[in-house]
């Protein structure tokens, strides 16, 4: 009886969203305040200590790929032991206690090591956190993931705003990175209040377990769909390269504006993430993902064009960041909701694990290739390469009949 009361208490709703989802949203918010104080200036810091586009690609590619691989492993393990919180809490603690020390790095090698620790923390928490969100959002999952990502990105807005203010006031990159420790500690405190969920008890209580039985097995068709979603990541453009390219659009004396561009992109994300999530619940996931990919394609074409520094270049780079924000606000939350649509209750952690594992393996070389082209040839060649990859991805995604895959997956389960 006490367990049932506790479960009911933990699933209290606010505006149709579980209090636990909101709490996890605020954990992500403070973590992203910490992260994006760093991310909005990290490429500039790497170049300051002697980095190049290839090294930037190496750091981005290795850390992103390793994070996604660990997402895959942690998703499997969380299903195996039927526990989520230990992975979620451990991941947030590792990330928030490691990344501030990037500010003490004398070389890119140390940046890589500390960034890898941060991404390791992200890797072991993300699949389990997404599984927890999906358990607490049995209906309107697009809305739930959209709200969570919106709170998450609110932290990115605050973090980039703080980076801008510190740069404007004359703080150096190292000092800003070290200051990120404080919001990270707040996130660690909040994560301790997130409650674990036993999938069996949770589903039995809300009476939906019987409806999920057919989808417990992850079939080959489901894995095929996960791989197709992962291909999107190979065609994506790492924001680090857009940050470096943005420096070509403004005078050196206005470099403190780059975190503002980053902030604008995240504001667009905040606005459209819940809207697109809700629209995907009503009209389907695929059209909105295709729209986001198409806007990123357009951004790559614009970034490939040469431009002289002027008021026009300032307006154009702001417009490009707006397009990138919309792309992220459509593809990111909706892809996650797609996975939840197709996974069974007990295998949901494993499903997210497979999704992120495919992303990690497929995108391993993407940033390195892009950075190599950027350094060896030109920014135009690099962004045209990105546009070409996106065009191929859009065609593949458009011609794939996801409804047929879903039906086959359910029949074979």
Question: Characteristics of this structure?
Answer:
single chain; 413 residues; mainly alpha; Growth Hormone, Chain: A; two-stranded antiparallel sheet; 79% helix; disordered N terminus
Description:
- This protein is mainly alpha-helical.
- It is built from 20 helices and two strands.
- It has helices at 2-10, 19-39, 42-48, 53-81, 85-98, 108-136, 141-168, 173-179, 181-191, 199-206, 209-212, 220-235, 239-246, 258-283, 286-304, 311-342, 348-362, 366-376, 379-399, 402-412, and strands at residues 13-14, 17-18.
- A two-stranded antiparallel sheet has the order 1-2.
- Helix 2 packs parallel to helix 7 and helix 14 (258-283) runs parallel beside helix 16 (311-342).
- Residues 1-10 and 205-216 have low confidence and may be disordered.
In the CATH scheme, the class would be Mainly Alpha
The radius of gyration computed from the alpha-carbon positions, rounded to a whole number of angstroms, is: 21 Å
Main-sheet strand order equals 1-2
What is the ordering of alpha helices and beta strands?
A: HEEHHHHHHHHHHHHHHHHHHH
Structure classification: mainly alpha
| Mean pLDDT over the residues | 82
The main sheet comes to: 2 strands, antiparallel
Q: What spatial form do the alpha-carbon principal axes imply? A: globular
- Uncertain spans, ≥5 residues at pLDDT below 50? 1-10, 205-216
Q: What proportion of the residues is helical, as a percent range?
A: over 70%
Our measurement of the CA-to-CA distance between the termini, rounded to an integer number of angstroms, reads 34 Å
CATH H-level homologous superfamily name = MFS general substrate transporter like domains
Instruction: Please state the second-level CATH architecture.
Output: Up-down Bundle
Helix tally equals 20
Q: How many runs of DSSP E, i.e. beta strands?
A: 2
Assembly type: single chain
**Count of discrete domains:** 1
CATH fold topology = Growth Hormone, Chain: A
Strand content: under 5%
């Amino acid at each position: 009886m006490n367990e049932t009361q506790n479960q009911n208490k933990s699933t209290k709703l606010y505006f149709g969203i579980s209090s636990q989802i909101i709490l996890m949203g605020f954990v992500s918010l403070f973590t992203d305040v910490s992260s994006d104080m760093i991310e909005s200036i990290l490429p500039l810091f790497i170049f300051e200590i002697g980095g190049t586009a290839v090294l930037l690609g190496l750091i981005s590619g290795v850390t992103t790929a390793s994070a996604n691989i660990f997402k895959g492993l942690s998703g499997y393990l969380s299903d195996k032991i039927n526990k989520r919180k230990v992975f979620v809490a451990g991941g947030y603690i590792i990330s928030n206690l490691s990344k501030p020390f990037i500010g003490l790095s004398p070389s890119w090698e140390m940046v890589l090591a500390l960034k890898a620790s941060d991404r390791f923390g992200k890797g072991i928490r993300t699949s389990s956190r997404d599984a927890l969100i999906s358990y607490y959002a049995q209906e309107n999952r697009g809305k739930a993931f959209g709200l969570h990502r919106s709170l998450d990105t609110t932290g990115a807005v605050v973090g980039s705003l703080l980076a801008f203010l510190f740069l404007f006031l004359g703080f150096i990159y190292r000092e800003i990175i070290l200051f990120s420790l404080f919001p990270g500690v707040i996130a660690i405190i909040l994560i301790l209040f997130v409650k674990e969920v036993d999938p069996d008890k949770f589903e039995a209580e809300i009476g939906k377990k019987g409806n999920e039985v057919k989808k417990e097995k992850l079939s080959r068709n489901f894995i095929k769909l996960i791989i197709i979603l992962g291909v999107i990541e190979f065609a994506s453009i790492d924001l680090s390269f857009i940050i470096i390219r943005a420096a070509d659009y403004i005078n050196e004396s206005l470099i403190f504006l780059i975190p503002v561009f980053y902030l604008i992109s995240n504001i667009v994300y905040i606005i459209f993430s819940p809207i697109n999530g809700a629209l995907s619940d009503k009209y389907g996931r695929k059209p909105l993902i295709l729209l986001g990919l198409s806007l990123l394609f357009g951004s790559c074409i614009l970034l490939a064009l040469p431009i002289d520094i002027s008021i026009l270049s300032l307006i154009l780079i702001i417009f490009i960041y707006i397009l990138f924000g919309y792309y992220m606000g459509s593809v990111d939350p909706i892809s996650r909701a797609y996975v939840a649509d197709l996974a069974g209750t007990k295998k949901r952690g494993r499903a997210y694990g497979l999704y992120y594992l495919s992303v990690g393996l497929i995108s391993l070389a993407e940033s390195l290739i892009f950075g190599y082209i950027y350094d060896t040839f030109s920014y135009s060649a690099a962004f045209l390469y990105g546009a070409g990859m996106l065009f191929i991805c859009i065609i593949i995604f458009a011609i794939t009949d996801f409804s047929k895959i879903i039906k086959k997956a359910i029949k074979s389960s």
